[in-house]
Structures are given as C-alpha cells and as structure tokens.
Amino acid sequence: MLRGLALWSGVAIAVVVSGYLSFEFGRIQADYNVIEAAADRRDYQKRIDKLEDEIVTLKEEVALLQTHSDIDKAAYKDVEANLTQLQRKIQEQRDAIEFYRGIISPADGGRGLRVQDLKLSKGAEEREYHVKLVLVQVMQHDRTVKGEVDFSLEGAQGGAAVTYTLEQLLPPDADNQWLFSFRYFQNFDRQLVLPEGFEPERINIEVRSKTKSIASVKQSFPWQSV
Question: Are 138 and 100 contacting, i.e. CB atoms less than 8 angstroms apart?
Fold first, then answer.
C-alpha cells in the first residue's frame, strides 16, 4: 500500500512539474522571460522614481522663482512709491520757493497786498464747498497789515443773474466776518453752502486794508471747483 501511495505521489508531482514547465515553455515561446520581465520592471520603477524626483525638484524651482518674482514686484513697488514721494517733496519745495519768491521779489515788481492763491474743493455734503485763500504782502514787510476780506459770488439762478454775499453763503453757525492780520502771508479755509438752483460763475474778492499806506486790492476769478 505504501508503494502505491508513493507511486501516486510521484505521478502527481510529475504532473505539476510538467504543467509548470509547459506554462513556462509557452511563455518562452511567446518571447516572455521572467528574469527579463523582472529586470524591466526594476528599470521602469527606477525611471519612475527618477521622474518623480525631477518633478519635486521642478516644483521647488517654480516655488523659488515665484518667491523671487514676488520679492521683485514688492521691491519695485517700494522703489516706485519712494520715487513718487520724493518727486512730490521736490515739487512741494519748488512750490514753496516760488511762493516765497513771489512775496519777496515778484516777477511784475508790484508791491502791497495781493491774492497769491485761490482754490475751490467740494465738501462732504451736496452743494458744500471749501474756499482756500492765500493773501500775501509783497516787498513791504516792515509792518503788519490788517483788514477784512469782502467775498461775493456771481452766477445764475432761475434764468436770472444773481450775486450772493459771503454772509448769504456761509453755514448758519459760521462767523460772517473774514478778518486778516499778517506781515508776510496768511492762509484761510472758508466753508460755503450754495443756494439750491444757483450756478456759480465768478468769484469777486476785495482785500480791504485798514493799515495806513497799504492799499486795498480787488481781484476776480472764474468758478472752477475740483
């Protein structure tokens, strides 16, 4: 019985080995080689690993370049801002020089009181405006000049020509007097509220001097708000 069992075992092993050899022979006949296939898989895996490393490296380079680009943009903005600020300061200095030159030695050689600058700007509310006025005393600084500014505004309302005085244009709680007292120059900022339906066209200013030997002066300007 043992001999029969051994014989059957040997037959079974022979069948398995024969089947495997037939399988391998078939793959070999089909140009398939286990060793070469394993080697190919290793090569492909190495290539994949290398490509993944290159991808990581490229991503790091892109991130670095982006950082440099952001830094360059920020640096450019800083330089541009500093340049703009410097140009503004230079212009302010030039304006200041021209302003004081106009007081000390004006181009027309005139003397006495004058309106050096007049600017209009819109206020916070509708029909609200700010009048910024600069008065100067030209080539005559041995005494303080005192007086009052008379302000009026010409325009049209309802198809008719109308002139409003300073008192009529001021807010209810504002001081209706416009006094001045200075030796070289004085700045003013007065708030105006235009009547409904009134379209301003011209500003009339009379700088009335109350100081002996210093004459008053009248000047008119077109209405040009910013």
Answer: no
Confidence band (pLDDT; 50, 70, 90) for 95?
low
- Determine the Cα angle at 6 with ends 4 and 10, to 5°: 115
Is this prediction's pTM over 0.90?
no
Q: Has residue 98 been placed in a domain?
A: no
Domain limits at 146? 112-222
Measured CA to CA, the distance from residue 108 to residue 98 in angstroms comes to 14
Q: How is 192-216 classified by DSSP, letter by letter?
A: EEPPTTEEEEEEEEEEEE-STT---
Per-residue pLDDT for 96 more than 70? no
In a domain, 33, yes or no: no
Q: What is the CA radius of gyration of the chain?
A: 47
In the chain, how many domains are there?
A: 1
Nearest 5°: phi and psi at 183? -105, -40
Q: Give the three-class secondary structure for 97.
A: helix
Phi, psi of 62 (to 5 degrees): -60, -45
In a domain, 137, yes or no: yes
| Residue 185 placed within a domain | yes
Coil vs helix vs strand at 171: coil
